[in-house]
Amino acid sequence: MELTFQQLVFYGFSTLLLLSALMVILSRNSVKAVMFLVLCFVATSGLWMLLQAEFLAVALVLVYVGAVMVLFLFVVMMLDIDIAARRHGFTKLLPLALLVAIAFLFILHWLVGDNHFGLEQMEAPSDHDASYSNIRELGKMLYTDYFYPFELAAVILLVAMVAAISLTFRGKRSRKSQDIDKQVRVTKADRLRVIKMESSSSSQQTDSKSDEESNENKDKEQDK
């Protein structure tokens, strides 16, 4: 069986993805594990390019590789996690972990097996002309067929973000807050205060008077 160039590229990216994912789990260094995870995302973007999903491939590289994984790398380097302390008592939970892993593999095989993702169920992507835009097609699908799941995912992410901020907040609870009703009912007298100040001419006159008085006092002292 002669392999085409597209099949060779597919098997190359798939092998790279599997090996890098395996190294993410087996790597003892957290920084190296993050770098292998970056390699996983790059290989996944290559597979999406083969499926003619250019927007998803570019978004994966820009968002995850360029932003999220850089953030992960900074967090891992700043935390300086003690791996030996984390692995203490690992053997006690090893049987439970193996059972969970086996159950996960069975579920994964059932989901991505031939019954759901075989060649009979999933057709190969057809070729399109130059005017075809998968970004436009993706937007149509998100806001028509998958509108409610898309909005539900956005709400779940918003709730998770608010919960994370509230759980990690360590500031003072007795902080100032706005009173909207008081701000609306405010008047000009509450905000504006008129201060009477002397003009420049009057200030000069007072200065000259004070100078004259001081000179007179000096003359009187000299006469005495």
UniProtKB/TrEMBL annotation:
One CC-aspect GO term: plasma membrane
Protein name, UniProt field: NADH-quinone oxidoreductase subunit J
Organism: Pleionea mediterranea
Transmembrane segments: 6-26, 33-51, 57-81, 93-112, 146-169
Biased composition (Basic and acidic residues): 208-224
Catalysed reaction, written as an equation: a quinone + NADH + 5 H(+)(in) = a quinol + NAD(+) + 4 H(+)(out)
Highest taxon of the lineage: Bacteria
EC number: 7.1.1.-
Topological category with respect to the lipid bilayer: Multi-pass membrane protein
InterPro entries documented for this protein: NADH_UbQ/plastoQ_OxRdtase_su6, Nuo/plastoQ_OxRdtase_6_NuoJ
Compartment annotation: Cell membrane
Region entry Disordered, spans: 192-224
Compositionally biased residues, Low complexity: 198-207
